[in-house]
Each structure stands twice: as C-alpha cells, then as structure tokens.
Amino acid sequence: MQTILVAEDEPAISQVLKVYLAKAGFHVIQAFNGSEAIEKFGSSHPALVLLDVMMPEKDGWAVLKNIRAVSSCPVIMLTALNDINYRLAGLNGGADDYISKPFIADEVVARVRAVLRRSEKAKPAEKIQHYGSLSIDFKAHRVFLSGNEIHLTPRDLSLLLFLASSPNRTFSREHLLDEVWGHDYDGSDRAVDLSVKRIRQALASWPSSEGEIKTLRGLGYQFVTER
Fold first, then answer.
1. By C-alpha distance, which of 75, 120, 116, 65 is closest to 98?
2. Which of 3, 7, 80, 129 fits a disulfide with 101 by CB distance 3.0 to 4.6 angstroms?
3. What is the spatial distance between Cα 110 and Cα 174, in angstroms, rounded to a whole number?
C-alpha cells in the first residue's frame, strides 16, 4: 500500500482527500502546517505529496524546496490561486502537477495515479547512483562508501544529496543556503563551509580519482565526478 502525504491546513478538505484516497487503496498521512509536513515527509517517506500552497508556519513553496533538496518524490500542488504565474512557479520549482481549488476529489485521485505511474517508470534510473566506490540511494536517503554505510547529520546528508543530484555543477553558498537550509534561514553562510567540511571528513577514504566536493574560490561548491 503506497503512502500519500496530504499537507493541507483546512481540516474539511484534508479529510475529504483522505477518504477518497483511502477508498482508492492508499495509506494517507495528514499534515496541517508546513513544519508538520516537512517532519512527516522525513519520517514516513511517502510515495507522493499533495501539497497546499497557503499553509501556516511554512508555506507550500518552502516545503517544496525542502523536499526537492533531498528527494525526487512526486509532488502535486493544491491551491486556490488560479493565476498562471503561480502554476508556472510551482512547476518550475519542481512540482510534478498542479490542481486548482475547488476540485473534484475523484479527479485528484486520478491525477495522483497518473503522476505515480510516470514516477514508477523513471524510478529505476534515478533511485541509486554510483560514483566509483561511493553509492547514493536518493530514495532511501542512504550513502555507502566501499559497501559501508556513511552516517551524516540530516542537514549534511541533505547537502550531499543536493550536490550529488547535479554532478559537476557549481552552486554558490547563497544558493545552497536557500535550497538546503531554507529561505527563512538567517544565520551565517559559514554553515555551508562547516557542513562541507564534515562531509569531506566522512568521505575521507573516497579516492579523489573517483570524485570530490570541490571548492571554487569566489563561486561556491561542486560535486565533481566522472560518472
């Protein structure tokens, strides 16, 4: 039974979605604000997220960024905002589909199934990537070096997954702070440097001939690999 995370702050709408999704054979987990959505996403590893844009604590855009920093899990945005610019913002931000309110619950279920079918077709190619002796399971959020699991803090793991998802691409500290720490982070950008330092220490035995996290002075960081 696949798990669907419904992140919707209006209890009545959330309950309708839960009933229809459960009737269709899905296991449903509910979250009623952005912070709870992020927490439950990390603990339940859902197959798909139905994500409302306008939520308290953290809005849907912030939750989507958090999810995309660590996972390719399908996300369908839900919102009463019908402007085409909001649709484009969601899709460009990594959402897989977009449904405007008011909606018909049966249509939501149909769209969930369609997105899951597309996701299943793409899954074998994106689940696990190998970079020499380093293996990263993006779905399970696990890292292995020479067959041994590497344990990182959640933030360090999120940073490594984000960098490794775009090999040989350079990201500035500001970009990494926004994508991994969140747009509401107000601390020092030194947090990125310290996180990279810890990741490098954890991957100290990874041969530089296979890859490395490279510092580009004045530009940022790059996950370099010949994969």
1. 75
2. 80
3. 39
Q: Are 117 and 109 in contact (CB under 8 A)?
A: no
- 221: which residues sit within 8 A by CB, 6+ positions away? 163, 170, 171, 173, 176, 192, 196, 213, 214, 215
Distance CA 160, CA 143 (A): 9
Neighbour tally for 157: CB within 10 Å = 21
Q: Please give the model's pTM, rounded to 2 decimal places.
A: 0.55
Query: For the segment 1-21, what is each residue's pLDDT rounded down to a tens digit?
Result: 799 999 999 999 999 999 999
pLDDT band at 120 (very low <50, low <70, confident <90, very high): low
Q: Assign a CATH topology to domain 128-225.
A: Arc Repressor Mutant, subunit A (1.10.10)
**Which fold is adopted by the domain 3-126?**
Rossmann fold (3.40.50)
